[in-house]
Amino acid sequence: MDGRAVDVETLRRFELGLDPLNPGKSAIPARVIGYGEISTIFEIEEPSLAGLAFKRLPVFRSTKEMDDYEELFREYRSVLTEGAGIRVPWQNTARVVPGTGNGVVYCMQEKMAPGSFCHQLLHALDDGTILALFRAVLGEMKKVWDFNASQDRLEVAVDAQLSNWALLGDAPPEKAAGAGNALAYIDTSTPFIRVMGKERLNTELFLRSAPSFLVWLVRLFFLEDVVSRYYDPRLAVIDLVANLYKEGRADLVEPFIAEGNSFFARSAPRPGVKPLTLKEVRSYYREDAFIWRLYLSLRRLDRFLHRQVLKKPYPYILPGKIRR
User: Fold this and answer.
1) How far apart are CA 194 and CA 156, in angstroms?
2) pLDDT by residue (tens digit) across 22-63?
3) What is the pLDDT of residues 214-241, one digit of tens each?
4) pTM (2 decimals)?
5) Domains of the chain and any CATH numbers
6) CB burial class (10 A; 0-12, 13-18, 19+) of residue 33?
7) CA torsion angle 309 300 110 102 (round to 10)
8) Quick one: which H or E segment has residue 79?
């Protein structure tokens, strides 16, 4: 992190005047610029915060929880950049502790150029260049796997779907797409780090955004599987390829599978990696899409119950409709 000053006072004013249901109607308006499965990405329409993209995590019940998360956020970013050689944009965190309710950590980073995100480039480049872009992303993933193989104590992972990578620099996308060093990884707000096989991230934090009547089910059946998939190179690539369905480029699934299998044949991070198949990628996507569609529907129900039945504020900014 390069020492850029963060206008925490404006963030406090933003938090106090936030309308989670309609961020654009907040006292300081926010404009939604992207959705994840759990979080919403937005920019705050205030000059002192211009050029930044934000994620808001209103899940912390103590100062220690905030300290631990922010320390892990910095460590993860450091391991990715200094250990694995992954490039990331400028990033930082800031906290706001309101008078009531959970503490809030804002994860912020330099806003990337419009059209630089790899999932957007799926609709802007020719298929040959898109395959070169996919090879570049695989090359970045290999840096992570090579780092993990280089020592016994520490293991990191990335959520490598195309929406989490962006091209850096001024080169036209069709020229930069094949250059691995032109890619930046943007999703460091979920710091996947294991020490001696034990997850450092307090995953219970992320259960707090789940509906209370669903927490036990998510913890029992889904949480470990969702986190562990990113540490498994083969599952991580399947997840990446399966996201093509969500991005409206199902026609690229088979070429990506062939490219992924070619990659593993040359550079498998461990012996005996089985080839990917179209059947399992389809099956993976259907199951994954069902899980996240159900999860979001239940979160919307939870918001309705909070606001209309219990007459309590609902603190989370939910994603809008996600095309699948």
Assistant:
1) 6
2) 999 999 999 998 877 777 899 999 999 999 999 999 999 999
3) 777 777 666 677 788 899 999 999 999 9
4) 0.89
5) 8-82+90-110 (3.30.200)
6) middle
7) 40
8) none
